[in-house]
Amino acid sequence: MPEAEPPTHVFPVLPHESSPASPSLDEVFEHSRTPDSVPGGTGGRGRPIIELADVRKVYSAGSLSVEALRGVTLSIDEGEFVAIIGPSGSGKSTLMHILGCLDTPSSGSFHLSGEDVSHMSETELAHIRNQRIGFVFQGFHLLSTMSAWRNVELPLAYAAVPRAERRERAIAALRRVGLGERVEHRPGELSGGQQQRVAVARALVTDPDVVLADEPTGNLDTTSTEEILGLFSDLHRAGRTVVLITHEPEVAAVASRIIRVRDGQVTEAPPRELSRA
Amino acid sequence: MSWLETFRTGAQAIMSHRLRSGLTMLGILIGIAAVILTVGLGEGASAQVSNEIQSLGTNLLTVTPGSTTTGGVRGGLGSATSLTAADATALANKKDCPDVAAVAPVSSRSTVLVAGSTNWTTTVSGSTPGWLSVHSRSLLEGNFFTQDDIVKANPVMVLGATTAQELFGARDPVGQSVSIGTETYTVEGVLNVVGSSSASGTSQDDLAVIPITTYQQHLAFGLNRTSVSSIVVEATSKNTLSAAYQEINDELLALQGAATPLAADFTITTQTQALTTATSVDHTLTILLAGIAAISLLVGGIGVMNIMLVSVTERIREIGLRKALGATPSVIRRQFMVEASVLGLAGGLIGVLLGIGGAIGLPHLISNPIVISPSAAVAAIVVSLAIGLGFGVYPASRAARMAPIDALRSE
Fold first, then answer.
1. Quick check: helix, strand or coil at residue A270?
2. Could you list the residue range(s) of the whole structural domain that residue B206 is in?
3. Do B325 and A202 touch (CB under 8 A)?
4. Is B143 on the interface with A (CB under 8 A)?
5. Which chain A residues are Cβ-neighbours of B331 within 8 angstroms?
6. Alpha helices in B258-368 (DSSP H)
7. How far is CA A251 from the centre of its chain?
8. Do B308 and B237 reside in the same domain of the chain?
9. Final residue of a domain: which of B216, B241, B264?
C-alpha cells in the first residue's frame, strides 16, 4: 500500500503555486486576492481553508440530467463555524459531498487549504479525506464490532500511524469529547449521544483542517442534540474550522455564519446570535 | 494500512459471521479432503498392486499358449494346447537357456478337496519342484514334492495355509489324506502365509499343488493331457531377463518348428508388463476421482465468491465509511481479497487435516490402503489459497470500485 504522506503543515502564501495546471486558476486567483468579492470572510481568522469557484455538479442518468449545483462560489476561512442550511433537494447534500472530497465537481474549482482537489483521482482524494477532513454523519457510522477507541483509531490506521501512537491519540480524542471512561465500550453499549461523540472524536483524531458534520443531530433527542452542538461550539472556540450541514434552523443557529442553499445556488444569510449556551 | 492490520480486519470480519464463514469453508474443506482421499486411495491401490507384482518376482517370465482356430472361430489367448510339460523340461536345459534359473509348468483347475467329512473347493495346480522357487514361496512345515514324485506321478499334495486350515482345522495336516474324486493324496507340506490377495482376486494362501504328472493323469481335461496352461520361467536375475526372454523365445520356436516369430503359437509376458497394465488402470481411476474432487473444489470456490458478494453488499455502509475515513480503493480491494483467501486457506487447511484423518481412519473400515501424499497436501493448500484469491477478485474489485457517497448513502 502506498503510505499516506504526512500531513502538510506548511502552506504556500499563494496557494495556487502548488497547482499551476488548474484550468480555473485565474478565477480562483482573483477571488483569493480579493476575498470581499465572494460570500464569506465574515468571522474568518485568516487564510481561506475552503474555496469554491463556480462549482457545478450535473448528475446524468441516461438522457436525463439534473444540475444539482449551479455555479456555487464560496469561501470559508480557517477557524470559522459555518452552517450550511437548506431544504432537502436543494443541493445541500451534493455540496457536502464535494466539500468532503467524496465527490468531484463537474466543473469549477475547489481548493482545500490551497490545494486544488477538483481533479484528483480516487486514491488522492482518499488521502485528502484521511488527513484534511473529519466527518461526522447523521447515522453515526460506527463499526458495531469494534470498541469505541478502535473506531476512533480507524483513520489513523489508514494514515499508517504506528499502533501504540494510534491508541494513545484515540484515547486522547475520546477524553476530549468526554468519553474517557468508555474507550472499551462498543457502539451498542453507548447511547445515541455518546455514539455521536465517538464519531466526533474520530473526526478530530487526525487533526483535520475541517470538521464536516452532516446532519449530526438528525438522529438525536433534544438533550443529546444540545450536547453535540455544545461540543461543536467548543471546537469552534478552540479554533477549529467546523462546517455543519443541516435543514433545521435551530441547529444552524449555533454557527457564527449561515450559508443557505436553494436550487443549487448559495446565498449568505445574516449571522444570528447564538441561541444556546 | 499494514498487511498485519488488513489481515486482522479480515479475520475479524470472518469471525463476526461464524456460521456463514464456516459453511463457506465447508465447501472448500470437502473438496480438499476429497482430493487428499482420492489421490491417497489411488496411490494406495497402485502401491498395493505393484507390491504384489514385485513380491511375485520381477525376474519372472510367463509363457502362455497361443489361440486355436476351430472352424474359423478364433479362441482366446491360451486356448491352444501347444505348450507341454516337455517344453518346460527343454527350457530348463542349462545349455540352451543359460539365463534361466528355474522353470515351472503350471496347469490348474478348480476342484473339490475332501478330508474326512470336510470338503473345500480350491484351485489345484499341477507343477514341478520349480514352482516353489518361481513363486518365491517357502514351506511352513513338511516338504515340497520332489523330482522323484514327478517321475513316479505320486499322489502327493502341498496345501496353502488357508486350505490346510479349512480342511484340517487345528490338526496337523502333514501326513493326512485328501481326496479328489476317487484319488487319495497324501499331504506332504503346508506353504507359508503370503497374506495379501493377488491382483486377480484369488488368495495365494488358498490353493493346492500336486506333481504335474499326477495332474495330467487324474485331473487334466481333454485329449491332450500333456499340455500345460502356462510355463513360469525365472531368470537368473533382473538384468538377464531380456536375455532369458530371447532364449526362451528361440527355444520354443525351434521346438514348435516355426520358421518365423509370426507363426509362433505362444506368448511370453513379463511381470513388468503386468505391472504397467495394472498401474495404468489405477492411474486412470485416480485421475477420474481427482477430477470429481476438482469439480467439488470449483463449487466450493463459487461458494466463496457468492459469500464475498453477499458480504460486500451487506457491508456497503462500512465500505463507504472506510472510504470516507481515507481507505483507498486498493486498500479496500486488499481487505476483501484477504478475507476471501483466509476463507479459502482455512477451508483448505482443515480439509487437509480431515483428509489425513480420513486416510488414517478409513483403512480400518475398508480394506483399501490410503497413502498420504505430502505433495497432494501441499498442492491442496496452495489450490485452496488460489481459489480464495481467484474467486475473491471480482467481489473485492466491486467493493473497491464503489463510490463512497453511494456506499454511505445506503441505509
1. coil
2. 81-264
3. yes
4. no
5. 1, 126, 158
6. 271-314, 316-324, 329-361
7. 16
8. no
9. B264
- Coil vs helix vs strand at B399: helix
Whether A202 sits inside 8 A of B12 (CB atoms) is no
Q: A241, A240, A215, A247: which is closest to A228 by C-alpha?
A: A215
User: Would B74 be classed as within a structural domain?
Assistant: no
What values do phi and psi take at A107, rounded to 5? -150, 170
Would you give the DSSP letter of residue B229? S
Interchain CB distance below 8 Å, B328 and A2: yes
A14 found inside a domain: no
Asked if A129 and B405 come within 8 Å (Cβ–Cβ), the reply is no
Q: Identify which of A2, A145, A157 has the shortest CB distance to residue B12.
A: A145
| CA atoms within 13 Å, Cβ hemisphere of B166 | 17
Q: Quote the pLDDT of residue A1.
A: 47
CB B320 within 8 Å of CB A97? no
Say if B333 is an interface residue toward chain A (CB within 8 Å).
Answer: no
Give the C-alpha distances (Å, rounded to integers) separating B310 from A5, B336, B396: 34, 12, 11
How many residues in chain A? 277
Residue B316 sits at the chain A interface (C-beta within 8 Å)? no
Per-residue confidence (pLDDT) for residue B345, from 0 to 100: 92
| Mean residue pLDDT across chain A | 81
Q: Compute the nearest-CA separation of A73 from chain B (Å).
A: 22
Is residue B45 domain-shared with residue B101, that is, in the same domain?
no
| Predicted local confidence at residue B258, as pLDDT | 63
Give the pLDDT of residue B199: 45
Judgement on whether residues B291 and B241 belong to the same structural domain of the protein: no
Split at pLDDT 50, 70, 90, the class of A174 is very high
* Same structural domain, B311 and B255: no
CB A89 within 8 A of CB A59: no
Instruction: Please state the ipTM of this predicted complex.
Output: 0.79
Q: Which residues pair with B110 in a beta bridge?
A: B123
One DSSP character per residue, A64-105 reads: EEEEEEEEEEEEEETT-EEEEE--TTSSHHHHHHHHTTSS--
Q: How far is A100 from chain B (nearest CA, A)?
A: 8
